[in-house]
Each structure stands twice: as structure tokens, then as C-alpha cells.
User: What shape does this take?
Amino acid sequence: MTLLVAENVGIRFGGVRAVENVSFAVQAGHIFSIIGPNGAGKTTLFNVLSGIYRPDSGRVLLAGEDVTGMPPHRLAAKGIARTFQNLQIFYGMTVVENVMVGRHLREDRRIVPSMLGLPSAARQNRATRQKAREILAFVGLGDPADEPAGSLPYGALRRLEIARALALEPRLLLLDEPAAGCNPVETAELGELVRSIVRQGVTIMLVEHDMRFVMQISDRLLVLDGGRTLAEGSAAALRQNPEVIAAYLGRHGAREANPALS
Amino acid sequence: MRALLSARWVTLGVLCLVIAALPLVFPSSYYYRVAALVWISAIAAVGLNILMGYAGQVSLGHAGFLGIGAYAVAIGPARFGLNSWLCILLGALLSAALAWLVGRTILRLRGHYLAIATLGFGFLIALVLANEARWTGGPDGTPVARVSVAGFRLAGPVTWYWLSGALLALGTALALNLEDSSVGRALRALHDSEIAAALAGIDVARCKLWAFIIAAVYASVAGSMLALFDGFVTPDVASFLRSIDLVAMVVVGGIGSSAGSILGAGLLVTLPQFLTVFAEYEQIALGLIIMLVMIFLRRGIVPTAQQLFAPRRR
Ligand SMILES: Nc1ncnc2c1ncn2[C@@H]1O[C@H](COP(=O)(O)OP(=O)(O)OP(=O)(O)O)[C@@H](O)[C@H]1O
Ligand SMILES: [Mg+2]
Assistant: This one.
């Protein structure tokens, strides 16, 4: 089944065409990755898919429904969650509260019962906290749950963002450079985590610079360059694509992506 | 969870204890009067903290809602023969409606638009109160009918001390409940990152609007209490300086902390009484003290103290 379709999506900022005429389809249950050099438009594309930017042209379809230009909180309700390349942590809250925020849509959000502190509100708080703790344990952050979020090291903050996104119980999870700043061991652990998320039935779109990592894990990849599609296909197909090798992977990248070449 | 839960009960417990025990050290009824003014101001400050401390939005015209609440209990009974208690409610409803109108469009915008819009709103209310003399008595103000409960007239500082103290305890309990709820977390989240909050499914504009409305209702009720306590009200209740006073209470005590807002109200109301020895330099001394607090206790008194006395982790 096709979960997400982008049709001729384009957006520009002033004179900069950040994304231009990009089309692709993401199959449910896949890991679909977007690669490309700095400034290629990967994050901008994520911003369009998650409703932060409205595209100037083109359409986005989620499970067949046109969701182009829908505001982020409604897209979240439709099952799109994401993490951020430049971390967006709620630093005024504890680790577990960050994840509890991700449960917002699953909670009773009426003001009066909240303010009165009715037993139902207390019960809901307990349930939300319990669920958030389970998710934290799943991403490997069970221990520091009650610490202030700011006390976590950088790599853990990336996991915290994943936990918060998972709390939404999304259908589609957009991960923007989750391995940035990770050492090889952490990157391998992250790969395991991503695979186990997919096993739970979540479709993943991944932006990542670590070629070895992304080539191993992805079902399909989209190569962007200067906002345009350079190529799209499986990892195996892209490794053979001379255009991709020449323009983007380069000699070094090709070797990393395809150990057989070196 | 234990930590947060206990923090909530500690704050409430200490507050009730202070309200109950303070009269033991009062040498005269004058102190009841000052303390009642503190409790009433604190009600408005605790409400404003929901907007400023939880949601991170600034209102520079919040005294406008004090004014609406105050004049509701002045005009309603005198002109329409309405019950004063009912007028507190009507004033709160009117404040909520105005907050909804002002906030609806403004809060969709990011940045400091709310601060500017509320600034204008505050001036507008003060202007209307001063100029619509036929209804409000103009700049000279208007008397406010005393209230009674079951034939018992509520007058005198001692009665109002307990009444406003009880209302403050209630208002604080509601604010603390909100803080640790789905909506409260949403407010605190959008304070830190509106984008991440929106992507967690939070309707950012709507949540900010709720915070603004709640803060307006708190201020309106405080304004009603103030007018009923004083038995007289002037447009000064809605002045810009009042609005700044409210903001200062929240910030000095420690933004985001209800206990801090109450402490801030205590300081901002009582300090001028102590500083009268400085005569014409009173305002300067007050400003200096606020500046020193903000320089040396940047996050405000209560959060700084909490950090000092919290058990060290790791
Ligand atoms: N809000 C904006 N205003 C103006 N220009 C923007 C904006 N967002 C992105 N751009 C521009 O769009 C282009 C694509 O940026 P984008 O952040 O999407 O790249 P990226 O592929 O994510 O790069 P990186 O690998 O460095 O994260 C860049 O030229 C960037 O300067
Ligand atoms: Mg990027």
C-alpha cells in the first residue's frame, strides 16, 4: 500500500528554489530515505510534509487524502510525527514530560476537569506517564525519566525526540538526521531502534548523511541536489547509477556506500 | 511523579499555613488590610503566570481586566440592581469574551504582537473608564455597594483577609492542577518550541487563547474583589502602571512558579509601605530593588531558591 505520495512539490524562499518539482511515493512499512548534499532541500521537504511550510506547487497525499498545506497539529492527528535536525526539546520540562506532551492527542484536553483536578484527570496523568515511561524504555532512556531534559547528553536528546514522536503512535515518522553527532556504536544502536520501530508497523522517512548507515537500512532512497530529484530507487540501483556516483557520492562516498568497490 | 505531586501539595500546604498563621503576628488591623491586598493581587498574578510563565506570552494590559471586574461590581448593583456576586461572574464572563476577541486574531501571530495588542487594550479600557463618566463616574471614580452573605455584611479588613485568602488558595489550587495536566503540559511545551508542540498535535493558537482567557478571568475576579474590599473604584485600577505591577509580580517571584507569583505580589504590595521612609524616592527605591532581584536572581526568587535547596542529583 502507498502511504504517502508527493506530486511535483515545489517551494521557494525569495529567489531560492529550495525544493523544485519533487515527486515520490512511500510504501507503507518501508524505510524511505532522502539523501543529498548540504542545502539540497531535505529538511525543507520534511517541513512541507509535516505542515510547517505550505508548498508553492504540487500536492501531498497521505493514504490517498490530499493533505497539502494542512497545519502541523492536524497532520499530527492524521498520523505524521517527526524529529528535528536542530533539536526542538522542551527544556523547561523533565524527560518523561517531554514524551507525555507527545500523548496530547490521546488525552482528554478539556480545561475544566484539568483545573479541578478531578480523579479522572489524575488517572489520565498516571496512564500518560506510564505510557511515556514505556516508550522511554523502548528507546533506551528509561533511567533518566525524571531528570530535567536539559541534563541529557546530545545523543540522548536525539532519542528523546524519537520517543516524543513515537508517543503520538504515528503511521509515518520523519527522522531528520537522527545519527548526527553519534559515534559508530551509537549509530548501530540507532539502526536497531529504527528497525524495531518499523517492525511495529510504522513507516519511516529518513534524512541522513551517514552513507553506510543509510544505504544499509533503506528500502528506497531519493537523492536530492539543489532542490531537484537526482535519482530515486533502491540502494542497489543507486550504487550503480553513474549520475549519483559522479554528482553526489563521489569516489569517497561510493566506497563508503559500497564496500565492494574499495 | 512523586516529586511533582508533592511540589503541588507543598505549595498549597505552605500557602494555607501562611494564610492561617499570619494573623498571629499582626499587631493591628492595618496589617489585615495590607495582607488582603496582597492576596487579591496574588490572585491576578497567579492567573497572569498561567499566560506568562506556562505559555510564555506577555500581556502588558492585564489591568484592563482588573478594571472590568472592578467596574462590574460597581455598576451592576448600582445601576441595574444586580446581585454583587452575580456581577463578579458577569465581569469574569465579559473579561473572558473580550480576551477571546482580542486574543483570537493576535495569538495566531508569533512574537510580541500580544504584548502590543494588550498594551493597546489596557489603555483603551482605562480610557473608557475615565471618559464614560455617566456610567463609571469618570476620573473621580464611583462607590461600590457592600456585599452581604445571608444578611451578614462583609466589611472590614479581617473578613476580607479570610475571604481573599480562601479565594487565593482556590485559585492557586486550580493553577497548579492545570500545570500538571494535558493542557498545562501543552502550554509549557509551546513556551519552549511552538513547532515541536504543533507537531505533537497541539493546536498552538487555541492553547494560547485559553491561557489568555484564563488569565483574564483571574484578573477580573481579583478586580471585583479589590473594588468590593475598597468600597470605591477609580479608573486607576486599570492603569498601565498596574499592568506593569502585575508583570513585575510574576517576573520577580519567578516566572512559571505559582508560589513565585504570590511572593512577588507580596513584595510588590508591601515594599511601597516600607519604602515610604524614602518619601519621594520611594519609586526609585522600588525600581532599584526589582532591578537587583532580576540581576542577582535572574530566574526569579522562588525558582532560584528551589535550585539552591534542591537535593543535588548525580
Ligand atoms: N525558511 C527559509 N528561508 C529561506 N531560505 C530557506 C529556508 N529554509 C530553507 N531555506 C533554503 O533552502 C535550501 C535548502 O535548505 P534545507 O535546510 O532544506 O537543506 P538540507 O538538505 O536539509 O541541508 P542540510 O544537509 O545542511 O541539513 C537552502 O538553500 C536554505 O538556505
Ligand atoms: Mg537539513
Notes: Strands of chain B lie at 142-143, 147-149, 152-154, 232-233.
